[in-house]
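Escalation from tier 1.

The customer reports that the assembly of two entities below gives different structure tokens on two consecutive runs. Tier 1 could not reproduce it. I'm attaching the input and our single run for tier 2 to review.
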Amino acid sequence: MSTPRASAKNQQRPVNITGTTALEGFVWTRRHLLGLDDLSSQEILAILDTAESFREVSTRSIKKVPALRGKVVANLFFEDSTRTRMSFTLAASRLSADVLEFSAKGSSVAKGETLRDTARNIEAMGVDTMVIRHSQSGAPHLLAQCLKTSVVNAGDGQHEHPTQGLLDIFTIRQRLGSIAGKRVAIVGDIAHSRVARSNIFGLRKLGAEVVCVGPPTLVPGAMRTLGAEICHSLDEVLPHVDVINMLRIQFERIGSNLFPSVREYARLYGLNAERLAKARPDVLVMHPGPINRGLELTSDVADGKNSAILQQVANGLAIRMAVLFLVNQGSQA
Amino acid sequence: MPETRDILIKNGRLIDPASLTDKKADVLLSGGKVAKIGSRLPAVHGAEVIDAAGKIVCPGLIDMHVHCRQPGHEEEETIATASAAAVAGGFATIVAMPNTHPVLDNEAAIEYVIRLAKQAGLARVLPAGAITKGREGKELAEMGSMLSAGAVAFTDDGDGVASSSVMQRALQYAGMFKATIMQHCQDPDLGSKGVMNSGAVAVRLGLAGVPAVSEEIMLQRDLSLLAHAGGRYHVQHVSTAGSVRMIRAAKARGLAVTAEATPHHLLLTEAACSSYDPNYKMAPPLRTVEDVQAVREGVADGAIDSVATDHAPHAAEEKELEFALAPNGIIALECALGLYVKALLETGLMNWPALIARMTSGPAAALGKSLGSLAVGATADVTIIDPEMRYTVDIASWRSKSRNCPYNGWPLTAKAVCTIVEGQVKYRATAG
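Tier 1 run:
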């Protein structure tokens, strides 16, 4: 593929990715990354391949390329986040962009300023890319409609977390060689999970099977319309999957009667060594973090040989570099 | 009262569903009443002559579900601007919803709305009073006093009356006055956090859903209460196929139930929410294709006897918020007729007399008002419609104060060209 550095010299033209034969002649045109639901399989592969080339940068002694020199990336985080935010900040600085940080807890309405106004004010400072994390589904779409900058979704409500989905898919491809034909279980609160949605959209487009596991209160039947299968028993699913992606338990869901207790949830859907023994020996165990140790995952599983959890975090950096780089080449709305 | 000039409407197609009339006839309006109907009525000295050749002449249209926002949110709409929008849409009469600030739950508030409507002097505005004080669903509001002040019916619209005992008492008490209880059917508990229809689209968008059953469970309960307690009951903005079936069955059992459907539930589906555009956020929410089809069929076969806009103005800054944080509702008074034609006539489900019935005699009967007819002696409310007029919806030109409307740019057919209220022309389309 043309190196990011070479493309950066002429940023008026879309980057031409020719790294793999499957993508021969493919041209990236998108200005925003709002979700994997919108992307073609070719576009997803383009991001993965671009990330592959950026992964090498982290191994250098000087971990920086000038791809986005002179560009400004603003991180707008309206919701708490540690790893996603740090990952985006580091990704932007490795591409030599200037980074603006903005945090506001709670909704923009509670602050007395609308999201639109907040974003337009920040845009007025001369920002090229807006990375947004927000508690409301669709918040990045709102910004994409009213801003001239690129918008990258870093997690919107219960909708999508596309860079997390991409880094999960990237990790699976890295460990298992390919995505097509693989069977992936996503376990937990699928209904309220943006990580689950982005994984389902991305994995299905690349030809994987996805089975959502959890009680019907957390895994509604309508998930099938997204192309996923549904199973309420983890034990039934375990022997037949290549990947188990364990979602974090959200304790606040107990109050809404979505499950009765953490203890019962862990008993039915927690992954421990005994349960893992039912799975294939080379099964990949993933978790978007942060982990509730001893609940959805016991420590021996989280830190064991099947776990890809830290690899996911490392890959997140490469994925976010790729995304920031690509949207800055994109011209289309 | 200013002296009203007589009006002779000539050569139109007279459609009066109340008297099963559909014929070419002239209509003479005099002294605020329909004076004469006949073919080739002779000229009357001093009368204004309106040539309605190629037009439909029908009773003044009635929209029984309009949010005028006054008092409280005059930046979004006022009685005067809602009235102006109404007559421009062909509506001689609108029913003003009571979810204002303060709530229309007492006779002084009802008198206030009537006074402002008289000052505006455009459409006839009939205020609906709240069923309960402050629309809190707890204590009955003074329905008797509100009726004597001019209230036309009662509703806690915006919210359903959740308490079964309050609803039972409301039906019994309002029933004593033969006044209609209008219910916004939505269980406040089931799907309370929902912002769109439950189902495939909500799951894809990561938005919380309001299931169809949330509407149906309250309707089912109310129909049981109605059978037990009596009274007159009207279902506002029917949105689900299940509700249509229940209403049809209840009518077959002889219950005193009426119902309305909105343009958006006749034309739009949950799929429209995919862009997260709050102009597609409603309560009840936009549902599935099957629901839209069932609501259309309900209107066509008369299970649903009225169409009503649920005209709900909101300030632009509110509708520019994140989908879940934006308020519910859209405006439609000025293009409603064309929307109904698109949903019900262009689909071949109904003909003009049936559609006009849903906009005149249907709502009049639901409200128990002697409006919506064009018999000799009736109030001279008349709408003249050009059924062939093609136009493009241009919300910038509207009389309403708000602009929250997803139909901008839609090509529509059929428009009111003249709206007459009590014998006075309140709207006339500019020639062109």
